[in-house]
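worker-03 picked up job from queue 'complexes'. Input manifest follows; four sequence lines, order preserved.
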Amino acid sequence: MTSSRPRTRIQIKNRAAILDAGLDAFSAHGFRGATLDQIAETAGMSKPNLLYYFGGKDAIYTALLEQLLDTWLDPLREIDPDGDPVTEILGYAQRKLDLSRDYPRESRLFANEILQGAPHIHSHLSGDLKALVDDIAIVIARWADEGRIKAVDPRHLIFSIWSLTQHYADFEVQVTAVLGHAAYFDDAAIHLNRMLRGALEP
Amino acid sequence: MTSSRPRTRIQIKNRAAILDAGLDAFSAHGFRGATLDQIAETAGMSKPNLLYYFGGKDAIYTALLEQLLDTWLDPLREIDPDGDPVTEILGYAQRKLDLSRDYPRESRLFANEILQGAPHIHSHLSGDLKALVDDIAIVIARWADEGRIKAVDPRHLIFSIWSLTQHYADFEVQVTAVLGHAAYFDDAAIHLNRMLRGALEP
DNA sequence: CGTCAGTTTTACCAATTGGTCAAATACAAT
DNA sequence: ATTGTATTTGACCAATTGGTAAAACTGACG
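worker-03 finished. Artifact:
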């Protein structure tokens, strides 16, 4: 087992290297498709050495998922129920798009986990995540009732924002191939802003 | 090697069973994560028997991808440049959503392939797919120029429709967990129709 | 210098994986 | 019934996989 917190500098460094290598592997090949040998090599150490820091493949994967879920929902929590509806929703979409741009591997790790049926985080989805979405949905429903945004299904609006923004990380290869160039996040931001504004402004 | 076309009834049946089992496995675990043993068991035959019909793991995967790409783009081709813009675009989105509902495994297979960097279909993406999107983009750009839909980046609009609709297949577990129930495609259709209409109608 | 926890390496293992081969069996046409 | 082809099986294999055990090394501190 892994001690709850790393102590020495070398532990901090090596655990970070392993998690980074694991993120590479798991986000690209999924849990079963990634191998410890591959992770160890990317991390620049031998497999037994890697296993000195993490109890096993599961431990690396679990650590990555926990670390991810911790920060993944923050943008949603930042929505201000007392703010301007369109500004708040567009701001949330922009923050999610920023996450796709800055943490594409994390986005793909999450996508892989969901694609595989979310075996490791199913309880999180129907627990914490559902509760948070339920809260925000009430706010959005109120905004719609007050006529400050167009009528909309709050939960499906949230799904839409998730899909629209995560797509640019998860399907990066396809987006790049179709566009013929790589730096598309600014254009995506303009497009999503304009499109969502059109969909929301009464 | 596999003969180009199956001949006997038993070949047709067994090849279909293998492809179906392979679709289960590959869509859930990706190429590397799926195993021949697993596919053979699901298909109800021994591994050597399976390998009598397909040259190897790659052959099954490739056959699935080709079969998929063949039909995946059809909805896009059905867009009528001379039709009503909003009707055509909303109709396309609806057809894509129908695909997500009726062929979720195929959608996940595609998502897995892209997540892994599209090693098997990269040339298809920057070839056929790009060419087709380029064509449609011209039509959409004209519609926008003529003021028949709001100003929009045509290619990013297509990405948006892809992400919005495929999300309901690829992230099914998450959608179900957050909603608390499973039959959501009718609601999704209403939501997407309303949202896209708001984003497009001038 | 010696010591001792912290770290790394070498050698290894059992299970799984993709795949082969030849023998055995089912089946269709004569 | 017999023959030739299509199909299936059982035995097997080399490579890879996740993981272990113990020896060897490192470096800070008394």
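worker-03 released lock.
Chain A touches chain B through 57 residues (CB under 8 Å).
Residues 35-37, 47-48, 51, 56-57 of chain A lie near DNA strand D (CB under 10 Å from a C1').
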